[in-house]
Amino acid sequence: MIYLDNAATTFIKPQAVTEAVMNCIRFECGNPGRGAHAISLAAAERIYACREALSDFFGVGAPERVIFTLNTTHALNLAIKGVLGYGDHALISELEHNAVRRPLYALAAQGVQFDVFPVVGLDTEAILRGIRERLTPKTAALITTHASNICSISLPIRAIGALCKEKGIRLIVDAAQSAGHLPIDLRDMQISALALPAHKALFGIQGCGALLLAEGMDPKPLLEGGSGVDSAPLVMPNEPPERYEAGTLPTPAIAGLLAGLNFVRSLGLDEIRRRTEALFLAARERLLSFRDLELYQADAVGSVLLFNHRQIPSTELARTLDREGIAVRAGLHCAPLAHRALGTPAGGAVRLGFSSLNTPEEIDALYSVLRRIV
Length: 374
Ligand code: PLP
Fold this sequence. Notes:
By secondary structure, the protein is an alpha/beta fold. Helix content is 40%, strand content 16%. The chain is built from twelve helices and 13 strands. The chain has a seven-stranded mixed beta sheet with strand order 2-8-7-6-5-3-4, sandwiched between helices. Helix 9 (269-288) runs parallel beside helix 12 (360-373). The mean pLDDT is 97. The protein binds pyridoxal-5'-phosphate. Pyridoxal-5'-phosphate is lined by residues 8, 71-73, 97, 99, 145, 149, 174, 176-177, 197, 209.
């Protein structure tokens, strides 16, 4: 089977990740922070090591400001609902996933307003102009994806961070598609909160994500419950991470995330980029050789390539590819707003998501299979 659905989740994991998860389950999986015995302490130590590694890699500068969540969506809900309230205004990009749009839509019922700024086809200056034009005195947060999940457009986060800083606005970044692909430094880019998944390009397993909080970014907790410390009061502890981490953490998934992050660090982001861009360019060249295929925003080179056959609906093409042993994803990819911005038809399009563990031979195989189908 050839797996080209890495933008949804990476399926082929480094062996070190599988081993780290198994070792954690077999030897370390006490309840972290809930006991003083050796197995509980082993779990807590593994979790702290992962907090430190994430803090270091993403320029947070404070391991306790790394909050573990279930996934990116959970992290985004915590950041968005934790800072926006009645009367506030927010800005989002036109490339947002429903993980950003739906929490904001839910908040709209509570008196939060939001506007959408354009991105597709624009350079950094034009994007910043679009943001400036939509700012209001009530704008409290700008929430944006770092990299689109349906094409390889990425946003100029450093420039957006500088603008948000100048205007006193919080910047919440969805790094679902960029963590593990693009360099990110929270302090350097002036990001207030960064939401990321373990299970995509950081090669961890499902069940874990993280919200990284800058100094001064202290959203309200989304959940209340046991925190393992300070059990007597009826309110959550004041300090992160316990303030936000009610209930038992997914220790095996966190152990996997640490191993995945170490894999990414040892390969290096430059090498990861070199590999995924080479796969992208090879696939783009092959797809462009078909008269009946349409590609969307394919000048933006990266790890995601979106296309359609002019006569075959995207879901049918994806199903046929699957029968031939190639896993891709079709439809709207939880991002109907982004599909509209790219001009795909109502049925969406077919997405290829590359990982640094894919090979050029797999792109050759995709080409042969597509030729047969088309
Ligand atoms: N944001 C973007 C841009 C995504 O691509 C995804 C998932 O594909 C999400 C958010 C949601 O991520 P998760 O499934 O980890 O909650």
